[in-house]
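for the recovery benchmark. tokens below, seq after
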């Protein structure tokens, strides 16, 4: 491909709304353009990357026994009403009406459609297991679409659904997908980690996330160097602390703390550590006011709290309600004398002589102890894990990394087949619900994550397996006949080898060509300049290294093939 003909409108400056590096670089390098908030066009370079990712995914899904289908984006409301999710998803679902005023959703995911399809056409255990997948656009009306392709309202997903006879069958399908996902992210050339995840709202009992490692990632991962434990912070298990032994338990005291509202205020005012206080957070759990308490320097994990409460909706209580119930505003809440159910984090049970709000504005208690001064409804693991916590498997110190979730696999069990009434007949003619799993890969997000993980101050550095082109051939002077001829000849030779090659034939200064080659991230650059050419040599440069190699023209083919295919 000639650069002069390639449509890659690069930008000097990127819109200020592009907050993260992948969004900035994909815009700047002419890969994507915004059509609407969270909705993007993939220009030729981006679409080449997307197709490479899709093909690797497709090969591994087929190898694992998946069969590719294409389901409708437009999905009738009735199916979602049947599963009960038409109401659940509210404004996040794009809805539309046809001329007969019948409602449809733009598919945010396809459990409803596929469960209905399989129910209609699969009747016997002999037809199972069945693994069906598609690669398609999905639609979710995010409140605040941002981060470019990382959180779009329209995005490309690979979604596979497994249908089995029983839990053992599901285990096998899940294992196949777990393996296939590892193959995929390895083949894509990305550094990633698999972590235990929460299956959350979609139900089911086992779930793993595949995280591309990047400092800018939104997801926090805890992992153990001493054993294999790795989990999303939301899922990571915190184990009970031993109770403090040092120091005597002192009598509880009420103290005047005018204007002191936050953990930091109290730290300064009372000259105590954040780990010598507790914070009290009040929530509305399906309409009931409850309190969650944890050490002052810890973060509440709402997912854990929601799971232990078993409630559908958990939202922060508003201050008016809190005041009506406790008698104080947010800055002076505490568990002592509070008459709502209190859920204490494990760590609180091990603390003594801590400070907390007194449920009276501008007052706090000190020297408080759980059990003596108040009794919680339950003592549970409800905080986020942090680096340094003991590993729940081997007690070694946990470490922390950041990542971008690009794949997520779930055991669903019979959650959808039950509500949709999707059944088959077993050996004995008995009617049973399908045992299901679902497995997603964010294709467009994977492209963004690859950039997030692989760039420098000059631009993108594509991993070879997904690079839009393998090689860019750059004649330094596009008006020099000799250079052009050498460039054309190398271009042809490499193309004949099956490499994907760009030739920068534009009438631009060499500096401009180098800048653009770096920006769009082509793994190998071959520069044809006057000096080297006199000795029948050209420069070969890897995008991820600073050094340039001088290579004889006769050896270029061999050298480049070695770099690209290894
Ligand atoms: C919705 C809306 C948003 C959603 C869902 C449904 C997330 C929804 C979870 C999944 C689970 C799996 C198949 C591939 C693997 C992941 N956001 N989820 O179900 F209606 Cl608006 O999508 N689906």
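predicted aa per position
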């Amino acid at each position: 491909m000639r650069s002069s003909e390639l449509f890659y409108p690069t930008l000097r400056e990127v819109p200020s709304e592009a907050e993260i590096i992948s969004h900035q670089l994909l815009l700047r390098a002419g890969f994507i353009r915004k059509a609407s908030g969270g909705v993007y066009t993939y220009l030729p370079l981006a679409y080449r990357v997307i197709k490479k990712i899709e093909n690797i995914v497709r090969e591994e899904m087929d190898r694992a026994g998946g069969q590719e289908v294409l389901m409708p984006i437009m999905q009738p409301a009735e199916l979602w009403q049947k599963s009960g999710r038409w109401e659940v998803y509210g404004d996040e679902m794009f809805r539309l009406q046809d001329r007969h005023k019948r409602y449809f959703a733009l598919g945010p995911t396809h459990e409803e459609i596929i469960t209905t399809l399989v129910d209609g056409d699969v009747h016997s255990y002999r037809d199972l297991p069945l693994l069906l997948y598609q690669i398609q656009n999905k639609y979710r009306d995010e409140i605040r679409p941002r981060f470019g392709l990382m959180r779009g309202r329209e995005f490309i997903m690979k979604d596979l659904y497994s249908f089995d006879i029983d839990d053992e069958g599901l285990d096998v399908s899940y294992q196949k997908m777990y393996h296939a996902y590892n193959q995929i992210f390895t083949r894509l050339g990305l550094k990633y980690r698999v972590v235990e995840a929460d299956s959350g709202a979609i139900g089911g009992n086992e779930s793993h996330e595949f995280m591309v490692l990047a400092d800018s990632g939104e997801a926090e991962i805890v992992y153990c160097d001493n054993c294999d434990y790795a989990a999303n912070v939301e899922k990571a298990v915190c184990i009970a602390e031993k109770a403090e032994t040092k120091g005597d338990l002192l009598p509880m005291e009420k103290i005047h703390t005018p204007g002191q509202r936050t953990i930091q205020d109290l730290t300064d005012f009372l000259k105590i550590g954040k780990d010598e206080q507790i914070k009290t957070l009040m929530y509305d759990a399906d309409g009931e006011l409850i309190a969650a308490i944890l050490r002052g320097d810890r973060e509440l994990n709402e997912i854990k709290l929601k799971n232990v409460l078993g409630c559908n909706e958990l939202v922060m209580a508003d201050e008016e309600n809190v005041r009506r119930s406790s008698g104080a505003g947010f800055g002076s809440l505490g568990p002592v004398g509070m008459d709502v159910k209190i859920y204490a984090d494990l760590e609180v049970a091990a603390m003594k002589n801590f400070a907390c709000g007194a449920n009276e504005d501008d007052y706090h208690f000190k020297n408080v102890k759980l059990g003596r001064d108040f009794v919680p409804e339950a003592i549970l693991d409800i905080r986020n894990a942090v680096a340094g916590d003991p590993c729940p498997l081997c007690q070694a110190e946990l470490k922390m990394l950041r990542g971008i979730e690009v794949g997520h696999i779930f055991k669903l069990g019979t959650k959808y087949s039950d509500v949709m009434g999707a059944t088959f007949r077993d050996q004995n003619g008995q009617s049973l619900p399908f045992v299901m799993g679902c497995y997603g890969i964010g294709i467009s997000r994977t492209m963004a994550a690859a950039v997030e993980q692989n760039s420098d101050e000059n631009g993108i550095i594509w991993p070879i397996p997904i690079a839009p082109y393998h090689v860019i051939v750059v004649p330094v002077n596009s008006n020099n006949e000799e250079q052009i001829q050498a460039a054309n000849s190398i271009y042809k030779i490499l193309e004949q080898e099956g490499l994907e090659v760009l030739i920068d034939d534009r009438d631009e200064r060499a500096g401009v060509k180098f800048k653009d080659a770096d920006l769009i991230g082509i793994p190998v650059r071959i520069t044809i300049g006057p000096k080297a050419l006199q000795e029948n040599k050209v420069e070969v440069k890897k995008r991820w290294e600073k050094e340039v190699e001088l290579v004889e023209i006769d050896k270029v083919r061999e050298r480049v093939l070695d770099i690209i295919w290894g």
